[in-house]
Structures are given as structure tokens and as C-alpha cells.
């Protein structure tokens, strides 16, 4: 039991947070509020998925917020210039996210400069580019279908089907992962099995309550879910994911074991750049326009989500599911404090303390187990 | 010398699930050098931790008497004050501070306002260093000294604490031959001045040379009584350590020499800090199937650099040609070398060989991930099966495959590193100091494995600093000095004197 609490500390903290908020504010638990909450989380969550991989490598990416801004500006300006929506999105993902991410990763690992420095530089460069391109003023979106990406919903019936499929897949996954080997024999971990099934059903019911109770699954949430699943799969199952854990664990050992460090690191920053750009595009769509200061400070929320989610700053240890919980916690705190009428200035202070608290718990846990 | 200074009686120390020390008894006399030997995990370090207060009193059972007085240390400082000092294998010094500051860390002579009285500090340090006959300037930055000299500073630090009992834990593992000689002179002088010494080492020759008597630990218990070194043979000591007779420490098997496999020509690696010098200077050699090629030489002779160069560690800075089975290879990174069929078991397993906070499976399959994956996805069952096979084959003692490798003993860790490279199925396996810091039993297992690999057609190249090992296991021996190859000897030609002659710079080839 003690071990269970320790291993799932952030998740339990999240449940408590939700219970407390539902008592403090009557509107917190409404389908409408929760749908909006989840949609807000996706903007930070998508970036945080990439940031998890960066921090797994014991790196950091400070440029994500600026890439969000530049991507938003880029996609709007490209559409204004007459490019089709999809082409504008593609150019932005590759030309803004991919190129800047490549620059971050390649420069820092080829010349062995700490990514803190390189991404700090790119953070300023990208922000400057946004300001230059827009002359410092907001640009409106003219394309009407573009707005649907950020604000649209999957209709209720298909949403329900999606949730059902997710439930079935979830239960299958629980069955698969609850098998343990003891002395060469397959043993089913009953606690994990029942816990997993209860969690899957609870998740399904929550999904039905939140989304079907309002207008269906918001499109950004669906995109986020796909990104999270891809991320989890990458880290757990693929060679690339394994290499990241190895590099984060000990870069020298990984290199001597034949891993191409430059390629893996560059790849991670490219992925993070593209995800940040995607986040920027969603934001522009939702706001129906882009201001050059969009995404300012987003790197902090992304880093905080990753750290709260239990990824070690020293690299080599961490999961995307943890990060998702971290992102939800940050989203819930922001949303809850707004509902309670707490000034955003105070919100910043509270968030800062929570980040420090999360790291403290992590450090103390590790010291105890050492 | 019969004045008993230390007696440890019935020491028992339990860790959850394991009894690390089981009624250990021994005595130490004034001015005695006592060798404490035993395999890794036999309890030597734990015993010394009990003695030095790392494990304070109620955490162990039994009694410790210093000059017939019962002592129960609550912490390491109390042990220090009672005159017990330890020179650890890894030195506990600060490289950026001066020698004197290191010796008197936290105990500097202070003036009225809490400022350090530097002149007095240096004078005191000079005095302590003089006791060791060491010509070390106390104002020098510690990091600028050689490892051997740094160790002397550590000894000086212990002496400045008025130490009566000094424990050396594997003190020679990082020292050159001449530094070891210097250390032994100092140890003998310390004995003459009445300091008692407990000397922990794996190296039997050293124990024979320096110790007066020996106590053997096995599985946490003392085996037999303390014996005078003059009354016992090394084989008897080893038999006590492993609990069985080892009639042959080096189970060398000779096979018929096969085809030429690895051939390197004019390998040169420049010294990044000294343009006039090369780390590896124009070295060529050939290795064959069916034989073990030994590379001998002193610390810093360029042996590790040579094999690293072949393994692609220096990238394009290396010049010279590498051929495998007649084909020239373009090796610019370890990945290239692995791809071509060359594997390197690195010297430092903790820093360069293992992901310490990862499990066995992850460590063992890392260089051959491609074998366990179709396209992008890793087949975890195949991975597990292969790891399990190698754990069995190499006799790796571990509770499960999910254990972090940092929890394993040195010998088992080394086997994991070797296993990781065996899984790559390489044609050439290079082993850099494969038995450093592992116990006698595990050493013999590594030797047997080398035999088996040679029989299977793998070309084995071994670097070793231990002459008996290099002579016992190699079919041919390359000797290096100052980055150059100075000799190539057959098994028959190689004896200790000849190897040392070439290792110290005499040239036999040209």
C-alpha cells in the first residue's frame, strides 16, 4: 500500500485536487467546464510530450514557447498569402517546428554545447522573427474551416464510439501488462488487473460525462490523444525509445554501445519542435488569429508538467503517462484558481511552489530508496 | 611485536535478508601489516565499515577493543579521533584545492576572526609530508599530482589525524609499478613508526611482498585463524578464499592457430594536449583465429588508447588502416566497429560499460538492439529469452532480470558487460582489463570463457596489467611503452623479466 502511494503519488494528488475543487466550486464538475479544461490542457500537453523526451536525455528546450508563437504567426500569414490551409499547416510544421528543432538538436549535440544555451538563443530568435513578420501586431485568420481545428468537436455518436474503442483497447492492454514472470512461469498480478480495469471503466465514464455530456470530443483533444499514444508507444516499444533511455542513463556507455548520439538527440529536438509548432497552430485556430507574443512562457508549463510527472532532470528516467498527469494537474490548478476568482498573478506564485514541491518529493523518494 | 592494539570479537552484521558478517574474529598488533583477503562480497568492506564507524554500534553485534578498551563508535568522526584511518580505493580528495588544504580540510589553523592562517597551514602540511619522505609542495593544486602522489596526500591526511590503525582498501589498483614500490616503502616506514596496517587487496603477489600475516574472509566469516605469511603458500590462501582448491589459476587451453582475422597497420593517435607526442604511435599487429593475443605494458603505455582507436573512439583523428578477414574497414565510431564485427569490453565497467540504474536486459541487448527488432519495435520476449540464456551460460548470479545492475557484485557486473558483447556475435572480442576488481572465482570463470570463445572461432585480444594473467592466458604478447609497440613475444619467449624490459622502453622490434 505504501509502495502504491509512492509510485502513484502524482495521480493520487490529482484525484485529491479534483475532489477539493469540486467542493469549493460548484461549476468545476460541469461537463462544459471540464471539456474546456481538457481542451486547454492539450496546448501545453502536446509540447510536454516532446519535452519529456528532451528531459529524458538530460536536456532542456527553452525555445518551445517561441516556436508556438512563430508557428501561429506563420500559419496565419501563409493563409493570408493565399496558401491552402493544409499546405500552410504542413509548411509551418516542417519549416518552423522541424527546422528550428533540428537547429536546436544538431547544434547542441554536434558541438557539445548545453541545449540550455542553444535553445535560449533560438527562443529569442524565434520570438524576434514573429515580431518582425507581424510588425508587432496581431494577424487575424481569414480561413473559416481553419477555426474548426481548434474549436470544433467530433459529433456525439462518433465520440461515444471512439470512447468505447478506447475502453476495449484499454482493457486489452491491462490484460497484457498484468502478466508477470515468476520463476519462469506466467503469473497474473490480480491487483494490477482489477485496478487497471476499474481505472479503464472510470476513465470511460469520465469521458462520457465530460464529452458526451457537452458537445462531444474537442478535435484538439483527439489530436492530443493520438500524440500521447504515439509517444507512449515510442518510448516503451521502439528501438528509438530504448536509445533515449540509454543515452539519458549514461551517454558515454550508449555511444560505446554503438548508438548514434547525434542522430537520436537531433531527432528528439526535431520532434519537440514539430509538436510545439502543432500546438501553435491549434492555438491560432482556436483564437482565430495570432499575436506575436503567443506562447510566451509556455516552456515553463511544459517543463513543470514533465517534472511533476516524475521525469528525472538527470535524464534516463521518466514516462509520458506521468507527464500527461503532470499536465492535467497544472491545467486543473489554473482552471480551479480561475473559477475561484484568484488573480492570475497569484496563480503564478502557487504554480511555482507546486513545481518545487514535486521535485522535493521526487528527491526525497529517491534518497529513501538509495 | 606482541602488543595487541585491536581486537574484533564475534562481529555480526545483518542487512535485510543477508548476514554480511557472521562472527568475525581477528586481532591486530602494534606495527603489524595484516592482509585482509577474500572474494568480492566476502565482507571485507563491511567489516571495515564497522571498524570505522560507518555502521555505528547498535547496527552490528559483537565487540571492538582498542588497546583492550571496549569502543563503540557512533560515527566516523569518533573512529577517526580514536586513531582509525581508511585510505579508500577511490580517493576522497578535492582536486581543485591545494595539497595542504586537502590534508587539513575543516581543521585549518584559524586566526582571531576566523580567517585561515595560510603560512601555518603550509608549514604543518610540510611537516606531515616530510614524515612520508615525500617531495610534494603543499601549495600545489591536488589535481596536478599523479594518482600515486594524491594517494600519498591521503596518507598524510590520515597521519595528521594521529592515526594508529590505517586501513588500505585496494590501494594499488590505479598505481604504476614504480608508484607501488614507493607506496610499499611508505607502508614499511609507517610500520616501523608503530602504525598498524590492515591491507585489503586482490593481488596475491602484493600481499606476499608487504604483509606480515593474513586473515581470510569467506561468506562473511573468518576462515581459520590469522596466519603468518611466511608459514603459508599463496595457493593455500586462495584455497581458503574460494573454499576449494584451485590447482590451475590459469586454465589455458591451446588451440591450433587459424586464419588471419584482425590486422591493423600504422595505427596512430595524436595526443590532444601535446602536439609532439602520440598517444598511440605507429602500431601494427595481426591477430588470428584460435589464439588469444595479449597486450601488456605499464599504466599509460597506450594500450587502452590502441584498442579504443581500433574501436573508433577517436573517430577521424586516428590514422592507419584496419583490416578484418582481408577487407579494409572504415571505422570512425564505435557504431562502425560493432557493425564490422568488433566488440570492446571497456576497462571501466561502471563509467563506460554499464547503465547502472537500468536492468540486466536493457544492458545486455543495448549494442545489438537491431537483432531484437523488426523495423522499429523491440521484441521484448526475444530480448528476455536471449538475456536469460546468457545469464545462465555466464553463471551470472542475480535474483532476476529486472534488477538494476548496480546491485550486482563486481564479478557479476563484469559478466554482464561481457555478455552484452557476446550477444553481438562479433568476430573479434577485445577485453580491456577483464578481471580488474573481480574475485578469484570469477576470474577463473572469465578465463574459461575466453578459452571457449577461442575454440568457437572468436579472435580474443586481452589487455592486462597483471603479468601472471597475461603470461598465463595469451598465445602471443604485444608489449607497449609510451604509445609504441616495443616487442611481440610468443608464449614461450615471454617471462616476467623480458616483458618488463620491453614495457620500460627497451625496443625489441623495429
From TrEMBL, chain A:
Source organism superkingdom: Bacteria
Mitochondrion in keyword set: no
A GO term, aspect molecular function: transmembrane transporter activity
Localization annotation: Cell membrane
UniProt keyword terms in alphabetical order: Cell membrane, Membrane, Transmembrane, Transmembrane helix
Location, primary (coarse class): membrane
Kinase as UniProt keyword: no
Annotated transmembrane regions: 12-29, 41-71, 83-103, 115-137, 157-179, 191-211, 217-235, 267-287, 307-333, 345-364
Membrane topology of the entry: Multi-pass membrane protein
GO cellular component terms, A-Z: plasma membrane
One Pfam family, short name: BPD_transp_2
Name of the protein: D-xylose transport system permease protein
Organism from which the protein derives: Halanaerobium salsuginis
UniProtKB/TrEMBL annotation, chain B:
PANTHER family according to UniProt: CARBOHYDRATE TRANSPORT ATP-BINDING PROTEIN MG119-RELATED, D-ALLOSE IMPORT ATP-BINDING PROTEIN ALSA-RELATED
Subcellular compartments: Cell inner membrane; Cell membrane
Highest taxon above the source species: Bacteria
The protein's name in its UniProt record: Xylose ABC transporter ATP-binding protein
Domain ABC transporter: 6-244, 262-507
GO cellular component: a single term: plasma membrane
Gene3D superfamilies from the UniProt entry: P-loop containing nucleotide triphosphate hydrolases
Matches recorded under InterPro entries: AAA+_ATPase, ABC_carbohydrate_import_ATPase, ABC_transporter-like_ATP-bd, ABC_transporter-like_CS, P-loop_NTPase
Listed GO MF terms: ATP binding; ATP hydrolysis activity
Swiss-Prot/TrEMBL keywords: ATP-binding, Cell membrane, Membrane, Nucleotide-binding, Repeat, Sugar transport, Translocase, Transport
Organism: Halanaerobium salsuginis
Membrane topology: Peripheral membrane protein
Gene Ontology terms describing biological process: monosaccharide transmembrane transport
Pfam families listed in its UniProt record: ABC_tran (PF00005)
Amino acid at each position: 500500500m505504501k509502495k502504491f502511494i509512492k509510485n502513484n503519488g502524482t495521480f493520487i494528488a490529482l484525484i485529491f485536487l479534483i475532489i477539493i475543487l469540486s467542493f469549493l466550486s460548484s461549476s468545476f464538475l460541469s461537463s462544459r467546464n471540464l471539456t474546456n479544461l481538457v481542451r486547454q490542457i492539450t496546448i501545453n500537453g502536446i509540447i510536454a510530450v516532446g519535452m519529456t523526451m528532451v528531459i529524458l536525455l538530460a536536456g532542456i528546450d527553452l525555445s518551445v514557447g517561441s516556436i508556438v508563437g512563430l508557428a501561429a504567426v506563420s500559419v496565419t500569414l501563409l493563409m493570408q498569402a493565399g496558401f491552402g490551409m493544409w499546405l500552410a499547416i504542413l509548411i509551418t510544421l516542417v519549416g518552423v517546428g522541424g527546422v528550428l528543432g533540428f537547429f536546436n538538436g544538431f547544434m547542441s549535440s554536434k558541438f557539445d554545447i548545453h541545449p540550455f544555451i542553444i535553445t535560449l538563443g533560438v527562443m529569442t530568435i524565434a520570438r524576434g522573427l514573429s515580431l518582425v513578420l507581424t510588425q508587432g501586431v496581431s494577424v487575424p485568420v481569414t480561413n473559416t474551416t481553419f477555426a474548426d481545428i481548434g474549436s470544433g468537436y467530433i459529433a456525439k455518436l462518433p465520440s461515444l464510439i471512439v470512447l468505447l474503442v478506447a475502453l476495449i483497447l484499454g482493457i486489452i492492454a491491462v490484460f497484457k501488462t498484468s502478466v508477470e514472470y515468476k520463476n519462469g512461469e506466467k503469473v497474473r498480478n490480480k491487483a494490477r488487473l482489477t485496478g487497471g480495469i476499474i481505472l479503464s471503466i472510470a476513465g470511460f465514464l469520465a469521458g462520457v460525462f465530460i464529452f458526451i455530456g457537452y458537445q462531444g470530443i474537442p478535435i484538439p483533444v483527439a489530436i492530443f490523444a493520438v500524440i500521447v499514444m504515439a509517444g507512449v508507444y515510442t518510448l516503451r516499444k521502439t528501438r528509438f525509445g530504448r536509445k533515449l533511455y540509454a543515452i539519458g542513463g549514461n551517454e558515454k556507455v550508449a555511444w560505446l554501445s554503438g548508438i548514434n548520439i547525434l542522430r537520436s538527440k537531433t531527432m528528439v529536438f526535431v520532434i519537440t519542435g514539430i509538436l510545439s509548432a502543432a500546438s501553435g497552430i491549434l492555438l491560432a485556430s482556436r483564437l482565430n488569429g495570432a499575436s506575436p507574443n503567443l506562447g510566451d512562457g509556455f516552456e515553463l508549463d511544459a517543463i513543470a508538467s514533465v517534472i511533476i510527472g516524475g521525469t528525472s532532470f538527470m535524464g534516463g528516467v521518466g514516462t509520458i503517462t506521468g507527464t500527461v498527469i503532470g499536465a492535467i494537474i497544472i491545467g486543473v490548478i489554473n482552471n480551479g484558481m480561475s473559477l475561484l476568482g484568484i488573480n492570475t498573478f497569484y496563480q503564478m506564485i502557487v504554480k511555482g511552489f507546486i513545481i518545487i514541491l514535486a521535485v522535493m518529493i521526487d528527491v526525497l523518494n529517491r534518497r529513501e530508496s538509495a | 611485536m606482541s602488543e595487541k592494539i585491536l581486537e574484533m570479537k564475534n562481529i555480526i552484521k545483518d542487512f535485510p535478508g543477508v548476514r554480511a558478517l557472521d562472527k568475525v574474529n581477528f586481532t591486530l598488533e602494534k606495527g603489524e601489516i595484516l592482509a585482509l583477503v577474500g572474494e568480492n562480497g566476502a565482507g571485507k568492506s563491511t567489516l571495515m565499515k564497522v571498524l570505522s564507524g560507518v555502521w555505528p554500534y547498535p547496527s552490528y553485534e559483537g565487540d571492538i577493543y582498542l588497546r583492550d578498551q571496549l569502543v563503540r563508535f557512533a560515527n566516523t568522526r569518533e573512529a577517526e579521533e580514536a586513531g582509525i584511518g581508511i585510505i579508500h580505493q577511490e580517493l576522497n580528495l578535492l582536486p581543485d584545492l591545494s595539497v595542504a588544504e586537502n590534508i587539513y580540510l575543516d581543521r585549518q589553523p584559524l586566526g582571531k576572526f576566523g580567517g585561515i592562517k595560510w603560512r601555518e597551514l603550509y608549514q604543518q602540511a610540510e611537516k606531515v609530508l616530510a614524515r612520508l619522505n615525500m617531495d610534494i609542495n603543499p601549495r600545489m593544486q591536488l589535481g596536478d599530482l599523479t594518482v600515486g602522489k594524491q594517494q600519498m596526500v591521503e596518507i598524510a591526511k590520515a597521519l595528521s589525524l594521529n592515526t594508529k590503525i590505517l586501513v588500505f582498501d585496494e590501494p594499488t589498483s590505479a598505481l604504476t609499478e614504480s608508484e607501488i614500490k614507493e607506496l610499499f616503502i611508505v607502508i614499511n616506514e609507517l610500520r616501523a613508526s608503530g602504525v598498524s596496517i590492515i591491507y585489503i587487496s586482490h593481488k596475491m603477489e602484493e600481499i606476499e611482498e608487504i604483509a606480515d600475516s593474513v586473515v581470510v574472509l569467506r561468506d562473511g566469516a573468518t576462515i581459520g585463524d590469522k596466519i603468518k605469511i611466511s608459514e603459508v603458500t599463496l595457493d593455500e590462501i586462495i584455497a581458503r578464499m574460494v573454499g576449494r582448491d584451485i590447482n590451475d589459476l590459469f586454465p589455458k587451453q591451446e588451440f591450433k592457430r587459424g586464419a588471419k582475422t584482425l590486422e591493423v597497420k600504422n595505427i596512430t593517435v595524436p595526443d590532444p594536449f601535446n602536439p609532439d607526442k602520440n598517444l598511440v604511435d605507429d602500431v601494427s599487429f595481426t591477430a588470428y583465429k584460435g589464439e588469444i593475443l595479449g597486450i601488456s605494458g605499464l599504466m599509460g603505455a597506450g594500450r587502452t588508447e590502441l584498442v579504443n582507436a581500433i574501436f573508433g573512439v577517436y573517430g577521424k583523428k586516428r590514422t592507419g588502416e584496419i583490416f578484418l578477414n582481408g577487407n579494409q574497414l572504415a571505422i570512425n565510431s564505435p557504431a562502425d566497429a560493432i557493425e564490422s564485427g568488433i566488440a570492446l569490453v571497456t576497462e571501466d565497467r561502471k563509467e563506460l560499460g554499464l547503465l547502472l540504474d537500468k536492468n540486466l536486459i536493457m544492458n545486455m541487448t543495448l549494442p545489438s538492439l537491431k537483432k531484437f527488432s523488426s523495423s522499429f519495435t523491440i521484441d521484448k520476449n526475444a530480448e528476455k529469452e536471449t538475456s536469460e540464456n546468457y545469464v545462465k551460460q555466464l553463471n551470472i548470479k542475480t535474483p532476476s532480470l529486472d534488477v538494476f545492475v548496480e546491485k550486482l557484485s563486481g564479478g557479476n557486473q563484469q559478466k554482464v558487460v561481457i555478455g552484452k558483447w557476446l550477444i553481438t556475435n562479433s568476430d573479434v572480442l577485445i577485453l580491456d582489463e577483464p578481471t580488474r576488481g573481480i574475485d578469484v572465482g570469477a576470474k577463473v570463470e572469465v578465463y574459461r570463457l575466453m578459452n571457449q570463445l577461442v575454440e568457437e572461432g572468436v579472435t580474443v585480444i586481452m589487455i592486462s596489467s597483471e603479468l601472471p594473467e597475461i603470461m598465463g592466458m595469451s598465445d602471443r604478447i604485444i608489449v607497449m611503452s609510451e604509445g609504441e609497440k616495443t616487442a611481440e613475444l610468443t608464449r614461450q619467449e615471454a617471462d616476467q623479466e623480458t616483458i618488463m624490459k620491453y614495457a620500460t622502453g627497451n625496443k625489441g622490434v623495429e
